[in-house]
Amino acid sequence: MTAIDPFYGYPSDRNGPFDYAAEITPSDDHDLEVVASCILIADTPTFVDGPVDGYKSYQSLSLKVTTAGGDIVTLNTFGGATLSLLRVRKVWATGTTVQKLVAFW
Q1: Peptide bond into 11 cis (omega under 30)
Q2: Could you tell me if 47 and 11 are in contact, meaning their C-beta atoms sit under 8 angstroms apart?
Q3: What is the rounded CA–CA span in Å between residue 67 and residue 82?
Q4: I want to staple 102 with a disulfide (CB 3.0 to 4.6 A). Which of 20, 40, 80, 91 is the partner?
Q5: DSSP state for residue 53 in the 8-state scheme
Q6: Element housing 48 (H / E)
Q7: Angstrom distances, CA of residue 33 to CA of 23, 40, 53, 64, 80
Q8: What is the pLDDT of residues 52-93, one digit of tens each?
Q9: What residue ranges do the domains of the chain occupy?
Q10: Which helix (H) or strand (E) holds 47?
Q11: Which residues contact 49 (CB under 8 A, 6 or more apart)?
Q12: What is the pTM of this model?
């Protein structure tokens, strides 16, 4: 049975819902094939020894991107899953420690 699309015929809003998704492999050499309207940033939280004995803290994870407008920024997260509505054309391998990235457009 074919899925029913209640949004068929309506103009697409770049803030969602999204029609396409692809896993991202970070690269210092290549842009994404399509500018992403949204990125899922997902990773398992990692605990490290905190500044006080017996206490743990989250290890920061990073995501270095080039935005659709050409700005290069590094985002920091502490694991789990986050949807970023930042429009991205490149995800850098250098400066990115997040393991699971999915682009939506």
Answers
A1: no
A2: no
A3: 17
A4: 40
A5: T
A6: strand 47-49
A7: 11, 17, 47, 17, 26
A8: 777 766 677 899 999 999 999 999 887 778 888 888 999 999
A9: 21-104
A10: strand 47-49
A11: 55, 56, 57
A12: 0.77
